[in-house]
Design a protein that fits this description.
The chain has helices at about 1-25, 30-45, 45-55, 60-70, 105-110, 115, 120-125, 130-135, 170-175, 180-185, 195, and strands at about 80-85, 90-95, 145-150, 155-160. With about 200 residues, the chain is mainly alpha-helical. It folds into two domains: about 1-45; about 45-195, Nitrile Hydratase, Chain A, CATH 3.90.330. It is globular, with a radius of gyration of 19 Å.
């Protein structure tokens, strides 16, 4: 059963490797360049960078997101003009790009398929509570939901609400808890299991 579940993923990986080999063989793509691109998206950009930024730079992000992110030398990855919005018990923020899929690649990595889908882009603005519910996130009626529409000139990043009981965690431990979806607003940061039992 488990091997059947993973078979389509394995087939896609084999197809990608075959296409990659063919492109290199035909001289269309240089293998060293391809390795550099892959390394960039695996190690230098992605949601682990965003999580670290959220854990380390809260006050700087809220004052001037663009400058705080520029300090990390991430310009050129659609993260030059960033506005950071903070989730609180009174306000929950959700990011969307209604026109296309403007997205801070350097901070969040490759955009998820659902973020680029027409259904998400249209419904997140019209019925954000329903969309969040589909992600498993129930937002109280007393909490205001604000939807931020990214575009070619400006990107938004959600500064997630810190879970209760995590106040004494180190920045590294906090960064592990922060997910890409929490920085888009379709999830909340969950405390580690030990926090539940304490």
């Amino acid at each position: 059963m488990a091997s059947h579940h993973h078979r389509p993923e394995a087939e896609i990986a084999l197809r990608v490797k075959a296409i990659e080999a063919l492109l290199v063989e035909k001289g269309i793509v240089d293998s060293a360049t391809l390795d550099t691109i892959i390394d960039t998206y695996e190690t230098k950009v992605g949601p682990h960078i965003g999580a670290r930024i959220v854990a380390d730079f809260k006050q700087r992000l809220l004052e001037d997101g663009s400058s705080a992110i520029a300090e990390l030398d991430l310009a050129g990855f659609s993260s030059e003009h960033m506005v950071v919005v903070e989730n609180t018990p009174q306000v929950h923020n959700l990011v969307v790009c209604t026109l296309c899929s403007c997205y801070p690649w350097a901070i969040l990595g490759l955009p998820p398929t659902w973020y680029k889908s027409f259904a998400y882009r249209s419904r997140a603005v019209i019925e954000p509570r329903s969309v969040l519910k589909e992600f498993g996130l129930e937002i109280s009626e007393q909490t205001e939901v604000r939807v931020w529409d990214s575009n070619a000139d400006i990107r938004y990043l959600v500064l997630p609400e810190q879970p209760e009981g995590t106040e004494n965690l180190s920045e590294e431990a906090l960064a592990v808890l922060v997910t890409r979806n929490a920085m888009i607003g379709t999830a909340k940061v969950q405390p580690p299991p030990a926090v539940f039992t304490s």
